[in-house]
Amino acid sequence: MLFVRKTWRLCALAAFVFLARVSSAQQWSQIGPEGGFVVSMAQNSSGVIFLGVPDGHIFASEDGAAHWELRGRVGSRTDGVVAQIVASPQGTLFAAVWYREAGAGGGVFRSDDGARTWLLSGLEGQAVRALEMASPREGDLLAGTRTGVFHSPDNGKTWQRISPADNQELQNIDSLAVDPQDAAVIYAGTYHLPWKTTDGGAHWQVAGTGMIDDSDVMSLRVDSTNPSRIYLSACSGIYRSDNRGGSWLKLQGIPYGSRRTQAIVQNRDNPDTLLAATTQGLWLTRDAGENWKRTTPADWVISSVLVLPAAADSKRKVVLGTEGQGVLVSEDDGETFSVSNIGFRHVVGRQLVSDPRRTGHLLLLSQQDGTQLLESSDSGGTWHLVPAAIEDLRRKTEKLDFGSVGQVYGTSWGWLVQMKGGQLFLFDENVGRWRERRLVWTAAPTAKQNSSSRKTTAVTATRAPVKGNVLAVSEDGIFLATSVSIARCGPEGDCQQLVAFAQSRAVQDLFVSVDENQVLALQENKLGVSSDRGRTAFWRDWPAGGGAAHWIEAANDGAAIFLATDNGLYRSRDSGGTWTLLEHGLPAARMQSWLETGGRYYVVTSQGGIYVSTDDGESWARLNRETESNGFAGLVALSEGRIAAGSVSEGVLAFGQAAAQ
Fold first, then answer.
1. Whether residue 639 has pLDDT greater than 90
2. Which of 41, 118, 430, 506 measures 20 to 30 Å from 321, CA to CA?
3. Where are the beta strands (DSSP E) in 566-609?
């Protein structure tokens, strides 16, 4: 097989300059859905609220959580969980960060410009999960990491370990608290009971008398008016100590199912009022924990709570950060809540597809408050939930489990989902329900029929043994890989295997042109090419040095084939006979998504870069900066010169001139 590498041409350079100008003139914008996963919140002395999320981004609100804006990202990684935000008396912000990648650690970061830019401020490589002011003095910090407790007296410039490095129990710090009357008294919550020091860390002792053994201490709170009283939350429940941690009393009233309390917050105007953020809603007590009531739905997972200062003769405003609904606000001291996500768009997107029948009709498979399907008919302006009801009410399950969806598709007949088990469901817009497509298929003849014979090919009336999520959609049909072949199915589920691919048992990916004339199949280091609707096909080798192949696409005019591999994107203009590695601005990395629209090619790399080419792939320009890198879950066209990308953490992002309006 011949491998061809193109040389650089002046026309490609000119195209690159043009692309750079286009990119700089346009910008990305968030187009919804609103809401997302909130990890941490804090308020500075000026009243600005800051919100941290699981990919390092920080949002801010200057009007009491009514509106939000994206300020910046803590560090350059996209897997940085902002576990805690601390505002110093002078307004400097610090963030405790740990990375989701195993063994990657994290660190403490600092911002001096209201969360717009951040710099590492120590403990690099440490997974930091707790951060507190060690005293009212500016820059005096305490940090809890997987390996112990650390102290910095100088705004994070230097750090000193204050817990013994050889104590295996005094590690995995989840929470910290400091006595407001004596900064030498520090409490540390670990994966196994709380610990205490009275001399600034020189000596430590376990402080778990009265607690159930093996209690993971997730939150510690010293009473603002009585330092002898301490509250803590653990996997075994909520506890109170009235003797500075000498002994603990387990508080009753919160059911067993809500025992994972992720934060306890005290109302400073009324110290007996406590708010507990649990995995089953917000719980409230007005009598120091003697009696509790839940003031939100039980299916809300609360991750953080902020009680804002009250104006004269008014009730406290309470702000909740959740794992599904985003931000919620109470104007009556935590009794009732309403959604407050304007400007906060940070949902976890799994897949984004568009409707081939209507421009701007989008479907997002989202990991928000469980797995949901969200639909927009106005290019992301507004979103609503797609019903999960199944039309066949005789089934044991009357709702579709979106958590078991393997892939979503936009088709000429409506939204199509393929479940992880292989079943296909089509959404009927007229009735607002899903209908299962039970597939039957006709075996392709293995030999020519005698023209004089009246025998016909037998129909196998069984469910097609669908294999994985290898499926392609044309204007009139569904092409899918089964355990024995590649089959074409009509919208009603009538299927017939393609003669040219009757023995294709290990298909990795399929491409089918809109008119079905061109069928491409990836299988066992080979590319199958058919130009006659799957009647005949020939097989080509993959390009040498490309590594594993992942998907195959063809240009709309059929003049070129594109193959995504571990080592880059390849193009063939002779049906796979020769291959060209596409470079000149495009990295040699794994490609994840593809889109052709308006005479341009777009691709997304596994590192989160989005690239565009206006010259048939000869040159490429990146559309997003390194600090905007994220995992993406699909590219779709919105309108002329405007595209949308499904982000794994920011919902749907739009790029183009219209996005800036």
1. no
2. 118
3. 568-572, 578-581, 591-597, 600-605
